Amino acid sequence: MFGSEPSHSAKIALKNFKNNNVKHIIELGAGLGRDTIFFAKNSIKVTALDYSPTAVEIIKKKSNCLGLGDLIEVQTHDLRQKLNFTDNSFDGCYSHMLYCMAFTNSELENLNTDVCRVLNKGTLNIYTVRNYSDADYKKGIHRGEDLYEMDGYIVHYFSDEKIKKLLKGFKNLSIDHFDEGSFPRKLSLVINQKI
User: Fold this and answer.
1) Whose CB among 11, 77, 87, 92 lies 3.0–4.6 Å from 49's, allowing a Cys bridge?
2) Mean pLDDT score of the chain, rounded to an integer?
3) Who contacts 92 (Cβ-Cβ below 8 Å, separation ≥6)?
4) Is 98 exposed, middle or buried (0-12, 13-18, 19+ CB in 10 A)?
5) Is the C-alpha dihedral spanning 32, 85, 93, 101 positive or negative?
6) Residue 147 pLDDT more than 90?
7) Which DSSP string do the residues of the chain spell out, in sequence order?
8) What is the pLDDT at residue 12?
9) Cβ atoms of 128 and 186 closer than 8 Å
C-alpha cells in the first residue's frame, strides 16, 4: 500500500534515535515492515508488533531474506491489550499512523501509558497521526470522538491539543506537520520524551 521505501517519519525518527544512542526499539503497527527493515539496516534492533498475522509473516520472511533476522523480532499483538514486555525494556518507540487507527480516546490513553511503562527513562516515543487539516477529516460516517469511517476504514484524527492530552509520563519535544503520498495525507509527527 505504501511502497517499500522508508517513510519520511522513519528517516526523522532514525536521526533522533541515533542522536540518543538508541539500540533497541519497539515498533507498533509495523504493517509490511518498510520502516522496520530501514531501522534494522541502520543497526537498530526492532521488536515489531502488528495485528495481522499475515503482516508478521511477511516481515519475518523479508528480514530473513535480507540477513536481518538477528535485528528484527516480530509478534502478532492487538494493541488494545497490554504489551507483553517488562517495564523499561526499550530505548525507544516508533509508530507510523498507528495512533490514528480505530482506537477510542480511552484506548489511546491506555496504550500511551503502557508505551511509557516499557520505555526507559529519557527515551523517545515518536509517532505520526493524521490531523485536522487532512482532506478526509469530518468526511464519511462519524463514529464518535474524532473517528470517521470511509469505505469501511475508520480513521482517528488529531489536533495538536489532542496530541498534548497524551503526554502522561512524557514531555513533548516537537510536533511537526507534513504531507505524505499523492492524496496527500496531512500528518503530524510527534516526538515525546519519557520523563
Assistant:
1) 77
2) 96
3) 13, 17, 20, 22, 24, 25, 26, 119, 123, 124, 125, 126
4) buried
5) positive
6) yes
7) ---SSPPHHHHHHHHHHHHTT--EEEEES-TTSHHHHHHHHTT-EEEEEES-HHHHHHHHHHHHHTT-TTTEEEEE--TTSPPSS-TT-EEEEEEES-TTSS--HHHHHHHHHHHHHHEEEEEEEEEEEEBTTSTTTT-SEE-STTEEEETTEEEE-B-HHHHHHT-TTEEEEEEEEEEETTTTEEEEEEEEEE-
8) 98
9) no
Grid cell in block for residue 82: 497490554
Ordered domains of the chain (ranges, CATH): 8-194 (3.40.50.150)
CA distance 169 to 74: 26
- pLDDT tens string 32-85: 999 999 999 999 999 999 999 999 999 999 999 999 999 999 999 999 999 999
Cell numbers 526523522 label which residue? Answer: 12
Type of residue found at 123 = T
Instruction: Specify the amino acid at residue 12.
Output: I
Peptide bond just before 184 cis, omega within 30 deg:
yes
This prediction has a pTM of 0.95
The CA R_g of the chain, rounded to the nearest whole Å, is 16
Cell numbers found for residue 24: 533497541
